[in-house]
User: What shape does this take?
Amino acid sequence: MKKTYLPILLSLFLQGIRAQSSPSGFVRDSIDAYIQKGLSDWNLPGLAVVIVKNGQVVWMKGYGVRDIITKKPVDEHTLFMIASNTKLFTGSALAMLETEEKLSLDDPISKYFPDYRLYDSTSTKLVSIRDMLSHRIGTKTFEGDFTFWNTSLSREEIMRRMRYLKPPFHFRQEFGYCNSCFMTAGQIIPVVTGETWEKFVQSHFLSPLGMDQTRILSTAVGDQPNVATPYTTSYSDSLNRVPYDNWNNLAPAASIVSNVSDLSHWLLMQLDSGRYQGKQIISWEALQKTRQANTWVRSLKSGRYPTHFTGYGLGLFMQDYAGRQVYWHTGGAGGMVSNVCFVPEEKLGIAILTNNDNQDFFEALRYQILDAYLGVPYINRSQQALPDFLKDSVKTSNEIKSWEMRLKSNKPELPLSAYTGNYTNTLYGKIQLSPEQDHLIIHFITKPDLTASLEYMDNGEWLLRYNNILYGIFQVKFDITNGKVKSLTTRENPFVEYDPYVFIKSEIQKR
Assistant: This one.
């Protein structure tokens, strides 16, 4: 009798193992059609996705094209800028160094950089590595990013200018997403190890994990043979190619370029207590440090998803979702957005990379996959999110058209020569305005590739258009007092920074 049942029992056992590691019904039967429709609905050229479950890759595939001109397809090796998904590498590195007793996450920044300053003296004295990694120094989300992102400023100069970030919130009491904070924390690595952030992350994570196609910096990313082209539909009814970002001066916050094949290794390590292929890459103690909430983002039910609490650890969001603890982070670069997500209780990991920064499909797809594996009743998350997105897009388009209708060769209050010259913002530094035919051109001194045109509409209002459409199209005004130009207030895409910048005309400052 035992010999008779043993093969049957063995067969049932193997079937159970295969079932545990197989794709969900949605992934197995519907994901291809779902993604293809999503690409069309959201005007998204290409996407790559990987799903790992129970220690195995159960789905990994590219969809659409990496370039709308060449039509070359996206595959699992296509590189994308993962932007802020870099942050967990930095948080993990510093957690590792704490477990090795080379630093404490609660060390003040001034221990390593005695001249470092924040806006007020109390915060300067208290601010720690943990504060920097937890987005809780009191600044607004993205504050300073227009100054720091895609500029010629060095990491040291960015750290120096952080003293001009005026916090609207109390220190350690509010969540304010801060890229320059992460860069500052990353700069401690060379102080305590003698290795640059780049070399440390490469030698301790990328190389041991076999992430051989991943690039630690964004230098010459567009020259790679299999890389996605960045696009946006922001401020336009059609896809526009945008330049590749250069995140090198904020590298610990956002510079890594990767693909879903390599990210599957990172996810498998996260879901195996820091091990990959039997080798301990990072200790379980260090891994746990990255997953402990240091800052609460929200503690009330929010939005259309079944989640109530969201916190932030060391380069990682965490939230409840359908009764499980989900860890995740998004990444936003010019022309690309991504999400990396894992659910340890389910041994489930997901990475989604895309090459249009103005769409929510990458998040809808992540939740659709989570729903499938976590038993949430089916709701088409893409179709659920699409109407609001389209409504906002139409509103923006109509607003821009209404401004363009006001371009009727009207004359501004003063001759163009009165507006030209140097302007300065304490945080940003200098810009220059020069005349060109019947309009003005803004030159952003630390952003050598960025300019903007100012065309007069009426009622003292001008139409601001950046040469890189990603930065936006806006209605702006000069402050004119007693017939003299005093200042210009500019705006930029909230994807870059939420708040406007006031630039004071140099003649005014000399007074």
About this structure: The chain has a mean pLDDT of 93. The chain has 18 helices and 22 strands. The radius of gyration is 25 Å.
